Amino acid sequence: MTPQSFKKTGLALLVLTALALPLILRSPTYLHILIMLYLYAYMTTTWNLVGGFAGVLPLGHSVFVGIGAYTSTVLWLQWGISPWIGMLVGGCLAGFVGYLIGKPTLKMRGAYFALATMAFVEGVRVIVENVDKLGPFKLNGPRGLNIPPLPAGESSFLAFQFSTKEPYYYIILFMLMGVAYLTWRLSRSKLGYSLSAGGEEPEAAEALGVNVAKCKVTAMVLSAFLTALAGTFLAQMTLFIYPKSVLTLDLSFELAFIALIGGRGSLAGPIIGALMLRPVTEFSRIYLSATLPGMHLILLGVILIVVMLYQPRGLSEPLTRLMSRLQDRICSTKTGGAQ
Amino acid sequence: MDLIFLLQDVINGILMGSIYGLVALGLTLVFGVLKVINFAHGSFLMVGMYVAYWVVAFTGLHPYLALVLVTPIMYIFGYLMQQWLIRPIFVAERDVREPITVIIVTTGVWYVLDNLALLLFGPDYRALSPNPLKGEMIELGEILISTPKLFGFTITVLTAAGLYWFLLKTRMGRAIRATSLDRDAASLMGISQWKVFNVAFGIGTAIAGIAAVVLVPVYNVYPTVGVPFDVKSFVIVVLGGLGSIPGALLGGVIIGLIESIGPNFMTSTWTEAIVYGLFLLVLFFKPSGLFGQKYDW
């Protein structure tokens, strides 16, 4: 078995397992947990396009989630435009906002960028909480927006509402696979190389003719667009959005934490991070929040600090090393057998 | 009559703004020396406020006498924080010009401290119950000035003056200034960079402690009390110029004025949006702020 085919087999097994899971796991509760897990894996992967590859620290990605969620919901509620179209509109709007934030700040040092993205979320949240109508758009202030559910048992693809969890599961799974593939392609493209060069050694990269700032802005726009798609998905999953649910610093920080603990700048890092941390936060929220409030955030913070101190490239690095050792062993025994 | 109200708001804004400036002062000092933003600064303020609150509640001291205990406790807290948490990252990322990891770790510290406070003290809002300063006012003609805020203003001025004296006149202060200008050259002159970092971080945290003592008589203590001050301090230091001491004080006063005068013209929550808008404008058009140095650090 060659290393190449080892990787391919592993990946195929992983995808097949993910595809087959709903056939085995019939409980809606577990499916819901899995859906949220994939959603977080998706959002951290899109976060990683800027936070990982471009080497800066965005702390305001919830603003894009919020833009995606609000755009599609407003379009659906007021004009009956399918959330699928709203998803794309929201994505484009988020991309534009990403350009507006990124263009002036990505030229500056990372601290400024981190602060600007944070202030942007807070500013947008304050505005959304204080207006009932923004021009012709009804935002309903702090009360948020309710999407009226379809009559029980009915599903409609155009309305992006389904009576069972399975369709949501497959939609977010395909979104996650799509964005993972995109990240993989990006990491091997000219843009990907320019980004990692610009992130590590901006002067050297500029000397070689890479327009570092422009590459970073491109990554930011792409990341904003893709993150907003998750916002629409979240809105359709929960059918209720309000400023404190989609436009908070907590969500922004959680995305950053998961990606950083998993490993920024790698393809597997954010997904591994979400796989490991979502269950921790989910279960400690369920079982500990009554007796020990805030315990899951303490855990997340402690894990983050420990990982940053001892494994600054994230948990995916030792895991990848383990995988490649396993790969070496399997591949070498196989060829040894053939001799 | 209207003018009197406006004057009252202006005075109130300056007094409250100076307290914001005091919080930001610690942040800007740490930034000036270490070139990193301590995202947990608001949480340090929160820790200081709980310490001050418990000191006063247990000993029954006058709220301002708590300074004697809170300031050294916070200094040691900051010193050890830098020694145990930030320093290892600096050592590991010696070659990286801008250790983003520090931002991440301090954000982690923020989350741990805030939620630890929630775990230990619960979500209750606490106010000093025998509060000798509560509602105390000085009357100047038709203008009412809140006494605790006036004390806060005075303490801010004294702290800033003390900090200036320390930085200009003492040996350690000179070492701190040298390190903030060029840490390699300072090291070559025999200054221990790590010691300077520890002391600067300790002083920055102690200033947060002083601000905490000032705030306890006029503000409730609760686990996330640091967050609004944290975000406000970021706005203030960028507005005034990262690393600049007069910038932090002036930036604080500007924010205080916006918050106190703004509600005359709009709903008070909108002033918050104006503060963030101003922050973004400064970031976009003059990132070095009012007093910041332009050169690349």
Summarize the structure.
The complex is a heterodimer of chains A (339) and B (297). Chain A has helices spanning 3-24, 28-53, 62-79, 83-105, 110-130, 166-187, 190-200, 202-207, 212-238, 243-246, 249-262, 268-288, 295-310, 316-338, and strands at residues 133-134, 137-138, 145-146, 240-241.
Describe it for me?
The complex is a heterodimer of chains A (339) and B (297). With 339 residues, chain A is mainly α. Chain A has one domain. Chain A has helices at residues 3-24, 28-53, 62-79, 83-105, 110-130, 166-187, 190-200, 202-207, 212-238, 243-246, 249-262, 268-288, 295-310, 316-338; strands spanning 133-134, 137-138, 145-146, 240-241. In chain A, the strands form two sheets. Chain A has a two-stranded antiparallel sheet with strand order 1-2. In chain A, helix 2 (28-53) packs across helix 12, helix 3 (62-79) packs across helix 9 (212-238) and helix 11 packs parallel to helix 13 (295-310). The longest helix of chain A has 27 residues, at 212-238. Chain B is mainly alpha-helical. Helix content of chain B is 72%, strand content 3%. Chain B has helices at 2-34, 41-59, 67-92, 100-121, 147-169, 171-181, 183-188, 193-215, 226-240, 245-261, 268-285, and strands at residues 137-140, 143-146. In chain B, helix 2 packs across helix 8 and helix 3 packs across helix 4 (100-121). Chain B starts with a helix and ends in a 12-residue tail after the last helix. The mean pLDDT of chain B is 86. Chain A binds chain B through residues 55-57, 59, 104-105, 108-112, 114-116, 118-120, 122-123, 126-127, 129-130, 249, 253, 256-257, 260, 292-295, 297-298, 300-302, 304-305, 308-309, 312, and chain B through 36-37, 85, 88-89, 92-93, 98, 100-101, 103-105, 107-112, 114-116, 118-119, 122-123, 223, 227, 231, 234-235, 238, 242, 267, 269-270, 272-273, 276-277, 279-280, 283-285, 287, 297.
